[in-house]
Design a protein that fits this description.
Blueprint: E1 3-7, H1 11-22, E2 28-33, H2 62-67, E3 70-74, E4 78-82, E5 87-90, E6 95-97, E7 100-103, E8 107-109, E9 121-122, H3 127-135, E10 142-146, H4 150-161, E11 165-170, H5 177-180, H6 182-194, E12 198-201, E13 205-209, E14 216-219, E15 224-226, E16 229-232, E17 236-238, E18 254-255, E19 267-269, E20 274-277, E21 283-285, H7 289-304, E22 317-322, E23 325-331, E24 338-344, E25 349-355, E26 358-365, H8 368-372, H9 375-379, H10 384-392
Parallel strand pairs: 1-2, 1-7, 2-3, 7-19, 9-16, 10-11, 10-16, 11-12, 18-20
Antiparallel strand pairs: 4-5, 5-6, 8-17, 13-14, 14-15, 20-21, 22-23, 23-26, 24-25, 25-26
Helix pairs in contact: 1-7
Bound molecules: flavin-adenine dinucleotide.
Flavin-adenine dinucleotide binds next to helix 1, strand 2, helix 7 and strand 22.
Length: about 400
């Protein structure tokens, strides 16, 4: 019987297992997870979980895995891969043979080298990290958040709503500048400052100090802040160390073709760790929730030979929740695009992203209907002039 092993029991790993069954794969399915938890959802970790509104984000109950004949091997990470022998080695010494292997090991938070090892300093990727951060939070505490990317921004919003004083530092000129550009970054900055966040743009973290527990932070502008808790959100790196020497090509992620095949025979990859070939612009990793499910579907179709899905046909989508607003991005938005802000009421906003004179993407805050209705025009590369004319009518 054919055996497919999926390494990484997160969203992409789970979705791939589901999609393989849906595509008619009837062989053995093994899902290997480094964490002891059943596959769980990460978006709530910087939102409901850290705010104390939810403790559990499990995606499927254990019975689901029994019903679908998915063997779970949790609590022991893959530590090596031999693509010639078609074997994965786990940290506990187990060797698993496979006919097909799917890599879905996600990301690990980037850390700042040289900082002292102090209690009260957190990163956020896993549910255990979210619960540990939450345990350090209480109304009136002073938090420093380093990095105003999506996780830093969401943490700032969650903490402020829980009565915590937040200093948010970001070396770039605005929050989210490298993803959404500075113009929309300014609109996001306004959400933070209006909510009472002490946002310091153009500033980074220089040093942390304290006795056992963090109590003071020195910033790159020479200022200092007293802190009870520090959250570092400066991006994440793909988990590929266990692939060293395996022959699977890695370059800031596992390099894949447009359906998830890697450079090694019978080895595939999906989710945040995977850099898939895209029609324009070479290979790209996408660190967003919807992408994991879309790639799982395409990969499962290709692996079983049943699919005709086309990666290029997807219109990328992601969202972020901040201050009671859903910030949504549809299409490919890039910091270098020309941005047209077509609505701005001081809180909610809508921006069109122009590249090569067409509508490449849309970003909106609190305007879900107006974002989602642009899907067809983004997919059809509508001329920006026509789109702007319609918006002003
Ligand atoms: C705090 C937070 C908030 C987010 N919010 C949003 C949001 O609002 N909107 C949005 O679009 N996206 C959001 N995302 C992104 C989204 O959650 C990810 O895109 C998605 O989880 C990617 O799925 P994945 O399976 O590739 O990676 P993961 O979900 O990280 O799963 C990878 C799994 O592999 C395991 N693993 C790692 N190494 C090994 C190994 N060697 N052996 C075995 N297992 C291993 C890990 O433990 C993990 O369980 C958020 C992410 C985080 C962390």
């Amino acid at each position: 019987m054919q055996r497919t092993v999926i390494v990484g029991a997160g969203l992409a790993g789970l979705r791939t297992a589901e999609e393989l069954r849906r595509a008619g794969f009837d062989g053995e399915l093994v899902l290997v997870g480094g964490e002891t938890h059943l596959p769980y959802d990460r978006p709530p970790l910087s939102k409901e979980v850290v705010r104390g509104e939810r403790d559990d984000t499990t995606l499927k109950p254990r019975e689901f895995f029994d019903d679908e004949r998915i063997e779970l091997r949790l609590g022991s990470a893959a530590s090596g891969l031999d693509t010639a022998a078609r074997e994965v080695t786990l940290a506990d010494g187990t060797v698993l043979s496979y006919d097909e292997l799917v890599i879905a090991t996600g990301l690990t938070p980037r850390r700042i080298g040289g900082l002292p090892d102090l209690d009260g300093v957190h990163v956020l990727r896993s549910i255990d990290e979210s619960l540990a951060l939450r345990a350090d939070l209480a109304p009136g505490k002073q938090a420093l958040i380093v990095g105003a990317g999506f996780i830093g921004c969401e943490l700032a919003a969650s903490m402020v709503s829980a009565g915590i004083d937040v200093v948010l530092v970001e070396p770039q000129p605005t929050p989210l500048a490298s993803v959404l550009g500075e113009q929309v970054g300014e609109l996001v900055a306004r959400l933070h400052t209006d909510a009472g966040v002490d946002l310091r743009a153009g500033v980074g973290l220089a040093e942390l100090s304290g006795e056992g527990r963090v109590s003071r932070a020195a910033l790159t502008d020479g200022s200092e802040v007293d802190v009870d808790v520090v959250a570092i959100g400066i991006g994440s790196v793909p988990v590929t160390d266990w692939l060293e020497g395996s022959g699977v090509d890695v370059e800031n992620g596992v390099l894949c073709d447009e359906v998830g095949r890697t450079s090694a025979p019978h080895v595939w990859a999906a989710g945040d760790v995977a850099a898939w070939q895209i029609e324009v612009g070479g290979r790209k990793r996408v660190e967003h929730w919807s992408n994991a499910g879309e790639q799982a579907k395409i990969l499962a179709g290709a692996l079983t030979g049943t699919g005709d899905s086309d990666a290029a046909a997807q219109v990328p989508y992601f969202w972020s929740d901040q201050y009671g607003l859903k910030i949504q991005a549809l299409g490919t938005v890039a910091a270098g695009d020309t941005v047209h802000v077509v609505k701005d009421d001081g809180r909610k906003f809508l921006a069109y992203y122009e590249r090569d004179s067409v509508l490449a993407g849309v970003v909106g805050a609190g305007l879900a209907g107006k974002v989602m209705k642009m899907r067809g025009q983004i997919a059809g590369a509508a001329p920006i002039g026509d789109v702007l004319e319609a918006a002003s009518a």
